[in-house]
Every structure is written in C-alpha cells, then in structure tokens.
Amino acid sequence: MRILVTADPELPVPPSHYGGIERVIDILIRGFMERGHEVGLVAHGDSTCQATRVYPWPGEQSQAWRDMIKNTLALSGAVRDFRPDVLHSFSRIAYMAPLLFSKLPKIMSYQRHPSIRTTRLASRLGRKSITFTGCSEHICRSGRLGGGVWEPIPNGVELDRYPYNGEVYDDAPLLFLSRIEPIKGTAIAIDAVRKTGRRLIIAGNIPETPEAKKYWEEEVSPRLKETGFEYVGPVADKEKADLLGSSAAMIVPVQWDEPFGIVFAEALACGTPVISTRRGSLPEIVQEGVHGFLCNAEGELEEAIRNIGRIDRKKCRERVEECYSMDVIVEMYLDLYRRRIDGG
User: What is the pLDDT of residues 12-21, one digit of tens each?
Assistant: First the structure.
C-alpha cells in the first residue's frame, strides 16, 4: 500500500522533546515501512521521520486561518504527488476539505473529543470515503453523535522501552506520573497515600498556566513538606520507565474524562498496577481488581492502596502485550486501511 499520513504542524515527527501523538505517528510509520509499505508524511518541516517522502507544512499554526489555507492546499498537492491508496489524518480535518468529495479512502483520527458539528458535516460530504477513529471507545461514543463510521484504535506502547518488572520491594513507593494540575488529581493522590503511611514519588511537569501554578503553590507544594513525599520534576523516557517499574502502583486519580492516557498503558507494561477513577477511557484500560483499581470516591483510594498486593503484575504486562503493544496497533490500522481500500 501507499499510505499518506498527516500530523499537526506545530511539532516535528518524531518530537524533539514532548509530543505524544507525534511519537506515536513516527512509530506507526516505521511499523508500516517494516512491513513493506510506502509511506508519505505531511508534517512540520523539521521532521526527521524516515518515511518514503516527507512533505513540510507551509504553515506552522493549526489555529491560524492563513496557515490553514496554506496547509489545505499543501495537502492536496501532496496527494497529487504521492498518489496514496489511503490518506490518514492526525491533523485538522479542515485540511481534507477539498478531498472529501473524492473516492480516496480517508481516515480521520481523534485523540480528544471531536466537534460533533464538524464530524457531521465531514461524514455527509465524504460519505463512504471517510472513516473516523478514536483513541478509545469513550471518544468514539461521543463522535458517533455526529454520525459516520467510527472505530476505536488506541495508542500503543513500545514494549522494549518499558521492561517488565515482576517483583518490587515490600516498601516500594507509589508513583504519581502526570502533569501537576487539578484534573490529574495530584493533591488527592497525596492525601490518599498519606492515610496509608506509604511513600509517594511525584513526577511530571507543572503547566505554564495561572491555574496550574496556583494549584502547585496552594494545594501540592505544602503537602510535600511531610516526610515520605518527593517531587522529582519532569522525567525522560528512561527515568520514567525506571520509576514505573520500581513502584508498587501508579496512582493518578483523574478528575476529568480521560480520552486515553498513554501513561496508564505504560505503567501496566512495566507490570505496575494502576489506581485511578472510573472516568473516560479508564474502564477500557484497567479491569477492576485485575490490573488495578478504579475508585468513585476518595475513601476508596485508600482501600485500593492497601489492597495493591492482590494484583498480579504479570497480568498487567499481558494486558499491554495483547491490547496496546505497537505491533498490535500497527496491524489494527493496516487492517482498517485494507478494508477501506477494498470498500469494506
């Protein structure tokens, strides 16, 4: 197959630093090419992804109207030049507007809740030529309100980056690994762990927003003055894997409807159980009592921490091997491409 993939114009593929979906796109493209397919990429001009052909976006801002027009024209030009069998967009659906009327099979992937109005219009114009995917069934359910064909395909984990650790020390700490902000439940995690007498390591960046800074100064930082709590700041891949693998559990009690949350799958890949809430996609990733615990109230978090020894770390790893490894995700997308090219 000849596959043309698009990424948002703001960050290169792969990203220099942070950039979750850009990293996933790079891994997918490598997986497609290893299986003998030709892949074109439309992305930021600094992208170093080893695709068959890279087409740079002329505009670098997704929300700027002039850049949107430039990039829409650029995508049409890339399609004419590369002549793909299928077009897969991880960028703005508006860039595909002139192509919606063509018979070229088109895949539009969402990592967050889609605009119902936009997807409804696109599905009407594209008809059978466009298929939508969401990073979870949770996202697909909201997307289907706008009509069209939706399939859940999660983001994947590179298993060799997250080695399995089947046993940790009895006094191993718990780990909070996420952005430090209210929707991730940092302060809630600290309070729950304090009640059990366990240690907690907190890793993640503090977003540059007034709300996040106030949350850190008033809700999180004062709680860290007690013995047993340590903030280590943002962590790179190697340090992240080490922290996950050596932790008794990862506790991130999200306070919003998480679209997917790749860090939960990364924790399970290391054999580390997850403690969170029953929000968004979490019930899809974590089977209650098997891969961790999902709590509806703060009091349940304390009980979950005390019962974390009941979780079989091997089953956590197996969950990712079966459902979230990059090999699995690559094949899911290739199967979707084939079905759409064949008209199925």
Answer: 999 876 557 8
